[in-house]
């Protein structure tokens, strides 16, 4: 099993997170980590959701990403497993904490 990281920008609507988590559950993915925060301070109606999943089949995983992207309240989905996202996220945290 490999770990894959997916980030999604979503509109803050009732039930969007429940619907997305239901999709992950339906496809039998184990969610290792989930983080949700306001994506940009000036856009309070948009949240960024980061999910770490355990994946067995890459093709099935890519199909899931496409299905998530088709949801009405989802603005953008990207798979960032190979990117240096940890450094970027820590830099953003430092910026807002200082």
From TrEMBL:
Keyword line: Amino-acid biosynthesis, Branched-chain amino acid biosynthesis, Transferase
EC number(s) recorded for this UniProt protein: 2.2.1.6
InterPro entries the record matches: Acetalactate_synth_ssu, ACT-like_dom_sf, ACT_dom, AHAS_small-like_ACT
Top enzyme category: transferase
GO molecular function: acetolactate synthase activity; acetolactate synthase regulator activity
Catalytic activity: 2 pyruvate + H(+) = (2S)-2-acetolactate + CO2
Record's function text: Catalyzes the conversion of 2 pyruvate molecules into acetolactate in the first common step of the biosynthetic pathway of the branched-amino acids such as leucine, isoleucine, and valine.
Family: Belongs to the acetolactate synthase small subunit family.
Protein name per Swiss-Prot or TrEMBL: Acetolactate synthase small subunit
Organism: Mesobacillus selenatarsenatis (strain DSM 18680 / JCM 14380 / FERM P-15431 / SF-1)
